[in-house]
Amino acid sequence: MSTESSLRADIVEIGRRMYARGYTASNDGNISVRLDANRLLMTPKSVCKGFMTPDMMCITDLEGRKLQGDRDPSSETLMHLEVYRQRPDINAVVHAHPPTATGFAVAGIPLDKAVLAEVLTTLGSVPIAEYATPSTSELPEAVRKYIKAHDGMLLANHGALTVGADLFGAYYKMETIEHFAKISLVARTLGRENVLSREEVTRLQGLRGTYGIKAPAPICADPGGVAESALGPGPGGAEAGRDDATCQVVRAPTGGGQRLVLELTRGGGASGAAAGEEGEIRLTYRELSALIEDAIRSLR
Ligand SMILES: [Zn+2]
């Protein structure tokens, strides 16, 4: 069991790493951990997470009332409290604004495609909680929908939230989400993604048990039906239904024996190889000669 002083030191270290990696700017972000069954240790309001000292932290009860500390607890205390209420299995919560993942949250694009095997076995999918005004009770409400089934999520037009059995477990998930977002952005910029097939996703899910990875929920068995209702018609699930998620929506096509399925992400989507060549004009030699002759004539 970690001592209070080592937990204070861990929060300081994680704050420093988040700031150094650009996951937070100015006073953004917050970190908390369970001290015992009734108390939380958390970062204070209005301090830069890159320059904290162990004595700055606040101790609150599970209603958010301050029990100890010179400063006031984080402005996102309500969101942290909701996570601890919904997830008795987790002991730490990290919130930050990592720029690439937050870019996906602004674009309304969830990180739910079956792209990286390790992300699938650990986090599963990373949905987007619908937009809520920061620091209000709207935010815990938006988070509640996904938190029982996910250890990490994007917050629409805001940032990201991760949880874990301990502080570093929660923080590393934040690193994984930002890393996944960067890789997805590069692949999409290049114009194509090889996506893991549904069969391969099922096999990876089996590995969770083999490696003792504790995922909060299984990957949804019926990706088509669930994906549509959970993602909703609006951007990133903003129009989704009220029910809390009970499984993880992972978008993976059926492979027909293939482990990887090519998806074109630029120039017309996944409608076949020709779509990726949109913009390319093919001319016969005769047509090309006629065009050049026309051009020369118009110059004279
Ligand atoms: Zn925030």
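^ zinc ion complex. Residues 28, 95, 97, 134, 158-159 surround zinc ion (CB under 6 Å). Confidence is low (pLDDT under 50) at residues 225-240, 268-278.
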